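Homework help board

Subject: predicted structure for assignment chain

Our instructor gave us this sequence and asked us to write out the predicted structure in token form, then describe one feature. I got the tokens but I'm not sure how to describe them. Can anyone check?
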Amino acid sequence: MLKILHYLPGVPPVHSGGMIRYAIDLMSQEAAEGWEVLLLLPGRLAKNRNKETKIKEVQHKGRIHVYEIVHPKPLPMGSGILDTDFYLKPCRGTAYQVFLEREQVDVIHLHTLMGLHCEFLEEAKRQGIPVVFTTHDYFGLCPLGSLFWAGNLCRELDWGHCEKCCQNAYPAWKLWLVHTRIYRRYRMCGRLVRIVHKIAKSIVSMRRCAAVRRKKHALPDYGALKAYYENMFRLVTMFHFNSYIAKETYQSRLGAVNGRVISVTHRGICDRRRKRNYTHRLRFGYFGSWSEHKGFYDLLKACGQLYQEGRQELELHLYSDTKRRQECFVHNHPLFGWRGFVRALDSFDVLVVPSLWAETFGFVVLEALSCGVPCIVSSNVGAKGLLQRYPKAGFVYDGTIYGLTQTMRGIYDHRQLLEQANDAILQMDYDFAYAGHLGSMKELYQDALRLAAEQGDGRQTCG
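My token output:
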């Protein structure tokens, strides 16, 4: 059996989202199959930037051995990078050398580059350990991880707009705070988190004013940062693209790289498809944040347009942790866990995923289809591949607000389209079982091992 080392930015409850769920489910299933599984996480960030990086074992999670990098690179936490020097500072690779020589893993599986030193990948290369990288987002191609600029996919290849996008990046003290144990312990305390963010916002505002005075002395070097992450990507043996959109986006910036497209999933997804009934009221559903790159405001405008046209037998059900919307057609709901999500699907007729950014996959589409719910999906969403494979099971539009409005209008005027889509979903031959994905990932690991061996720097394994 294989010995796999996974690298993640963190684990629940501090960190959440599709990347975290995917990785934890994959690790758990690999361990259940008898594989030896290790997990490496970024840990405490020292106040002294010159402190030496170390790796220590912190706990066991079932059969999974968990290790922590003491003094990793800072986690941008989705806010971008402003202090590029902080991220470009090299470290001694001794800790990584000792760790990898001791553990003798067969494959390293990275789920992000956040928090990781380039020296880790250089040491893996030196020891002949193949590296697999799953493209959950675009961090490393973009300091924010979204490649979204001025309402569209960012086309700036030299990172020329990055300083504008990263103007709200975390200050150094907050980067330090999010790595502390006390922050992790009280992360679920909403009041504490709000206070921290309020203080950070004030400091960011003051820093903008001071930036004009020190601009000549402390300009961020995004060119060097871009080169740093490109070098890390060059040390990846095999890319796991979770959609063709992710593959096209990565290869447009990195050139031709070795990899395979394998759709992601998680263990909560199983075949719950059923015949659904539709009433005279058309109920749209949306899960996620109220952000421009998610297409949320385009969805609001499209619903408002239909309502103004007299198509008022519609509802928009929002599931979000943001404050309530007041539009007359909006129904606000809180976010909840997976079981609550399955129940929530009964509150609407069709799911809308209107992303403007090049979303690498979109779990919510697969989750909805597994319950028999039709989807309206932007052409920017990686999971559109599911609807292209089964074209009658949903609706893919061109990613514009005009296209979204036209699609929603067509469904409103011809409700039988939903019944036809539901019937097509019931007839899909798609395998929702998790075992198939585990098999695909094992084949990918073996491909990475063979490729490393062909390149003359790979280990032999009997896995």
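Reply (TA_rk): Your tokens look well-formed. For the description, you could write something like this. The chain has 17 helices and 16 strands. That's the kind of observation they're looking for.
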